[in-house]
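Fresh eyes needed here. Have a critical look at this protein's tokenised backbone.
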Amino acid sequence: MFESLSQKLESVFKKLRGEGKITEANVAETLREVRRVLLDADVNYKVAKEFIENVQKRAIGQEVLTSITPGQLIIKIIYDEMVKLLGISKADIATAHTPPTVILVAGLQGSGKTTFSAKLANFLKRKGSNPLLVAADVYRPAAIDQLQMLGTQVGIPVYADRSAGAVKIAGDSLDFARKNIRDTVIIDTAGRLHVDEGMMNEVAAIKEATRPHEILFVVDAMTGQDAVNTAKAFHERLDFDGVVLTKLDGDSRGGAALSIRAVVQKPIKFIGVGEKLDALEPFHPDRIASRILGMGDIVTLVEKAQEQFDQQKTVQLEEKLRKSQFTLEDFLEQLREVKKMGPLSQVLAMLPGGNRIPADAHVDEKALVRIEAMIQSMTKAERLRPSILNGSRRRRIAMGSGTTVQEVNRLLKQFEEMQKMMRRFSKGNMRKAMRGLKLPVN
């Protein structure tokens, strides 16, 4: 997410390092480069211009404290202004005083509306809600089937009526929700390949019939300035409450995220960060600004870990670490938990300095699969006591996992080093424990 933008900004900031003070000259030079980077990322021209002016006003004349460098001060100012640009604070979705809460989902065809609707339903279900999905796209072939399939995957019912029009389906779904004790209704509306009058009239009629508490405009982040222009057209007709940016895990240059709120004056509420139905994040302006500027996003990383890791198992693991009883069986379990957090590239991007990993670096996701296969090819006794793994056993494990003996040897060597590291960790020596931490990045 934002890798290209982040790396280009990092190269700009390097030029300020070592400067003794901030001057109009070095501020102007830095901001010229930042403006170019923003425009390359497809940020709206007016938005980029205003952003640079705001940073310049704050930067010129500021003294550099003895504890920080000019580069650090400029980054802090840019960070503050970027948070303002993105929305200052997280914007929650509205809820009804008397259920059901009605959420209307709109956008162009291909923006990811249907998938987002299912992701949102899944997100709300995990938060304790009892949602209902509504298939109000009666035009796109298999749209209803797609939503029903996604609903089945997340265990959420879908209201559909193949013989009725979209407006009637949306209206009738509210009665269905009340009778079936569903506290949230998520209406997936039809999209078109471009903004047209018929599309706008229909979605406006659905709005009138259902009086939604929340209207969310879904936009493909990879479309750049087209996304901003489409958002303006929808906002003029629908007056939506918030924006959802999908496909931010793809080759997004970041322009839509940095422009859309400033142009339509509506907050970004969610971002799609993957294809899986749990790959949806609430939009936190401060965390996204931190990712863009290479500061990482430890808070989101910790939240992801808390969602995936079982608290009781974590306590048991800590006890094993203290007693130096960490085995390959434990390692396999932890490996599976880490995989649940999402692609390794996304996890690395949330660490401070993650933007310094070269854009063409290969994060070997398959390495984790091979490690898992090798451990699964071992017997229970071998996982608990790797010391019994002689040459013939290692050959059997390599054949069973589709790997080589050399890979098995490497795994066992790294596990031995990890055990030593864990023993140092259990004694409280954090600095020594962190040495030798290896990530599968080439």
Q: What stands out?
A: The beta strands are 101-107, 131-136, 158-159, 184-189, 214-220, 242-246, 268-272, 280-282. The mean pLDDT is 80. The first strand starts at residue 101 and ends at 107.
